[in-house]
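User: Quick sanity check before I run a bigger batch. Here is a single chain. Can you write out its predicted 3D structure?
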Amino acid sequence: MIPIKALLTGLAGVSLSMANISGKVTDTGTTPIAGAVVKLENTGWTATTGADGSFTLGANTGILPGNGKLLPNGLSARISGNLMTIMIAKPAVVEVATFDLDGKEFSNVRQAMEAGSHFIALPQRSANVYLYKIKSGNGELMLKGNSVGCASSGSAVSFQGPASNRLAKQAKVAAATNDVITVTKDGLLIYRVAVSNFDTSGIEIKMIVCAGTVTDTDGNVYQTVRFGNQEWTVENLRTTNYKDGAGIPKVTDPGVWRSTSTPAYCYINNTTNADSIKKFGAFYNWYVVDTKRLAPAGWHVPTDSEWTVMEKYLILHGYNYDGTTRDTSYNKIGKSLAAKTDWYSYNSGVGFVGNDLTMNNRSGFSALPGGYRQSGGDFYILGYSGSWWSATEFDEYYADCLSLSSDNYALEGASYLKSRGFSVRLVKDN
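Assistant: Done. Predicted structure follows.
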């Protein structure tokens, strides 16, 4: 590739014009929903829908998201259009390095800057997602953006080395989305959808009626959705205690997880981040499920046959990706179950969960790709698949579970070692 002679060119006096994100929130038909709170998760922009369900996020003020506040390290940056905006607390030499998603460095440019805001022009490139690593003194963060200027959100990074494998890995995980719109309204399921650029208008958001809520022993509240005669939670369980108040053993050490044949739980990658725990829930081995004490009163972990009832209901009511309803043995409901965010994207495979995430989650089930914990204690395929235990035992060593994958269109059943760590959903007692 021909070297880029100048990655950055200072633009004194340029005003930053940030495009708005606008759209309309309705029910699953066309009835507008007023008073819904719409939020852009990373930037923090919020809006409330009007009487006609419309909203607009952002404003052409030239002010950075978060009221232009600096991060704790005295550095802040973002991309909008083909401009990068950098804010620094004191004069410094700012270094900006550019990488592709494989961690290959394209350019590394240093520029002296005074304290305050600086607007930088980014060059046009072939369509792709690029990573920008920004350093100023002891401050460091990374932005991502595409060649035509899709807006990106910055986040602090802890690694060093511009072309490290760790950078490439983090870049690929982050590449699926630039930001996420969250919509909340009492009586409706929380709606989340990825947006890949900030020049977006006319977004249509259709919210699904919430069947109710259920509260676990820890006080966590979960929304629910109804399919026929069944009512299901639409979030992964994250309780750390049984319904009688007794604690479930938490196991983080891989060796201990590998050797245990008794109840245990953990979080994805042993995270301690509260937002991640709320989003993805906990992993439980099947010995926890087998106690019959995991779900709060009036609820239980679904059996394999109860998963099948839900599957057939969705097929018969047009939730296959192609709308077919003739054959309940031909399961193509993956997209209708999978959330609109976090799944690895696949440009091929019409009907795959990862193909065009905007078409996902018509059912409201909001399945996320949390991956799983191997019997050996390692964590696998976050972003690629999600798996949920059933309460059905296969034999002495195996139990049944259901899974979704980015490169498949079906909800698939299989049996796995009881020592694996999978997610759990609940269904209401009849």
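Residues 373 and 379 are 4 Å apart (CA to CA).

User: Great, the batch can go ahead then.
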